[in-house]
Structures are given as C-alpha cells and as structure tokens.
Amino acid sequence: MVKVAIFGAAGGIGQSLSLLVKLDQNVDELALYDVVNAPGVGQDLSHINTKAKLSSYLPENDGLAKSLENTDIVVIPAGVPRKPGMTRDDLFKINASIIRDLAEGIATYGKKDVFILVISNPVNSTVPMVAEVLKKFKVYNPKRLVGVTTLDLVRSNEFLKQMLPEDKIDSSNLFVPVIGGHSGDTIVPLFSIGCPEYYKKLSTEQRESLIHRVQYGGDEVVKAKKGMGSATLSMAYAGYRLTSSFIKTFKNEVSKEVAFIELNDQLKGAKEAKKIISEKYGGSHIDYFALPLILGKDGIEEVDYKILEQADEKEQEMIEIAVKQLEKNIVKGKNFISGIETSFSA
Ligand SMILES: NC(=O)C1=CN([C@@H]2O[C@H](COP(=O)(O)OP(=O)(O)OC[C@H]3O[C@@H](n4cnc5c(N)ncnc54)[C@H](O)[C@@H]3O)[C@@H](O)[C@H]2O)C=CC1
Ligand SMILES: O=C([O-])CC(=O)C(=O)O
Fold first, then answer.
1. Is the pTM of this model over 0.90?
2. For domain 3-149, which architecture applies?
3. Cβ of 13 below 6 Å from ligand 1
4. Can you tell me which residues form the catalytic site (predicted)?
5. Confidence at 342, pLDDT banded by 50, 70, 90
6. How far is CA 230 from CA 76, 81, 83, 112, 156, in A?
7. Sign of the dihedral defined by the CA atoms of residues 62, 63, 68, 74, in that order
8. Catalytic positions
9. pLDDT digits (tens, 9 = 90+) for 302-317
C-alpha cells in the first residue's frame, strides 16, 4: 500500500502533479488537500481508470488531519508563486506561515515515518523551516525530508541538448547534478561531471550562457507568463520524477536523485560534505545543501560528498558564491520558526 498526499493540489503545480501521481500504477491512494477547490480537482481525477483511490479535503472538518491518515509521502506545492520583478525570497513573507502551519499539521497528524517533499519557495528557507518544526515536535527524521530541486537538473539536461542540436542528445538520459540551493547564484550545475564529453565542446561564452540559463530558468517562465505565475508544468514533471523515486522505495527499488537536504550527521556522507563546504568553500554555517543522493527504503541512504571536490575550477568558484547566499536563506528559515510559538498542540 502506498498513499501519497499533495498539499496545494488545486494549484498550477498541484493539479498537474496530482494527475501524474494518479497515473502511477504503484500508487494505491492519492489524497488532495487545498484551501480551495480540492474536491473539484479530486472529482475530476477520480474518473480516470487507474488504480489510485482518490480523496480530497479542504481545511474544514479536519481535512488536513484526514489527508494525512496512513499517508506515506507528502508533496507540498502550496503557497504563492512569483510575479515578474520578484525574487523567490520575496515569497517568504506569505509562504513561510503557510509552510509552518502545514509542517505543524504533518508533525501532529502524520505518520512518524512519512516522507516529505517540499516544492514551495523559497526552498532554501522552507526546508529548514519544516525541519525546525519537526524537531520542535520531536518527530524529525533527516532521511525523510527533502526540498525539490529536480527542475534545475531537468533544465540543465534540456538546455544542454538545445545548445548542441547537431549532437542529437537524448536529454531524458542525461544526469547533470545541480548542487547548492534553488535560487539564482545558489543553483550550481556541474556539467563538467554530468556530461564532460558535451561540455568539452562548448566555448567559454557558451558555458557561461548555459550556466546562467539554468540559474535563471525560473525567470524565463515568470517573464513569459506575464504575471500569471511561474513554472507549473515543467515543475509538475520534475516533482513527479522525484516523487516516483520515493514511491519506488516501497518496492525496494533504489534511485539516484538530487535534492536539498539537511547535512545531518545521521546521513552517510553528510559529515564529509559539511567539512568540505566549510574548509574548502568557507561555509562554516552551512547545514543544508542540494547534493546527489541515493534513495532507498529508509529514505536518503547516502549523500555524494565527493562531487564537491570533483567540480572544475569555475564550478568551484560558483560553489563559493552559492554558499554565501545560502547561509542567509537557511538562517532566515530557522529564525522564523524559533521566533514563533506553535499553534497546534503537540
Ligand atoms: N521547487 C521548485 O523548483 C519550484 C517551486 N515553485 C513554487 O511552488 C509554489 C506553488 O506554485 P504554483 O502551483 O504555481 O502556485 P498556485 O498559486 O497555482 O498554487 C498554489 C496552491 O496552494 C494553495 N494553498 C495556499 N495556501 C495553502 C494552505 N495553507 N494549504 C494548502 N494549500 C494552500 C492555493 O490555494 C493554490 O491552489 C510556489 O511557491 C512556487 O514558487 C514553483 C516552481 C518550481
Ligand atoms: O522561478 C520560480 O519562481 C519558480 C521556480 O522555482 C522555478 O521555476 O525554478
């Protein structure tokens, strides 16, 4: 039995992501939760002839608690998206309290071993926030919480393909690890490691333009949508990719993914990663970072810290820049929780 719950299921990402999860034959139950329209979206999806049983909830009548009953995986695309001219950090004001309240709900009503995937921005701050709430409620397991940065990897694969049309690259087969965080300069694609054979072919200008496009790919969509939101379809695809890797852990399948995680000593390789980030890149306070990881039945089984030393010179400079920004984002998320009393009773 695998049950997935999606918080923010009636939104741009939420609806497409719910559709993709409904199509997954490894899912037995899908619970939709939103402050608006979840029953409508649920009714619509419930006509699709796939295995997953649908349920949908609004906040009234203990909807949040019910959506979490026996839930194995919670995916959170709840909150507001950017408009042109905004940074992801500008979303903090509104999304922070939404994420805090949902995290408190998970801590109160969720299974102790639930997997939590956070999509809501700013990811660099919302993930530390969720961890702090779970720690406060004494239900935190660092192997089971991730921030979703998969869209950065998806974009890297695709943008590289688009830059080298003659090579006829199948971008669905590439794996460019994108490490650091999920905003601007904190996004560090490691093309030299992911696909050295193609990266070698690029001029310095092409490399710079490719890296910039990955770092600011979100802005391209925000600009093109002219105030109607940010990436939803590509994000649903990326979010489903990571969700499906978590779903597969219930069939004892192991996957390699990249995600934004706490570098907690309980994770194999995390201590080493923290040491390198501190000593080599000056990030002595960094305890969250996106890195490649192995997912298995207990969640994050291993973190690839070696990649931090394998990056080429330019990429190492980018890591150093990322670390500075990331430190501030992480502290901001943590402070938001430590400064505020919880509203649910533990
Ligand atoms: N991690 C990533 O790579 C990406 C993250 N995002 C982020 O995902 C978030 C959602 O984006 P969209 O789906 O485009 O926004 P949207 O506005 O279309 O949908 C958000 C949904 O969340 C719901 N919601 C608001 N408060 C809620 C609460 N307390 N509980 C449950 N649901 C609640 C809204 O009713 C709405 O249906 C944004 O913060 C956006 O920045 C977007 C793209 C990529
Ligand atoms: O740009 C945004 O605000 C949404 C996002 O995170 C992305 O598309 O990578």
1. yes
2. 3-Layer(aba) Sandwich (3.40)
3. yes
4. 182
5. very low
6. 16, 6, 7, 33, 18
7. negative
8. 182
9. 999 999 999 999 999 9
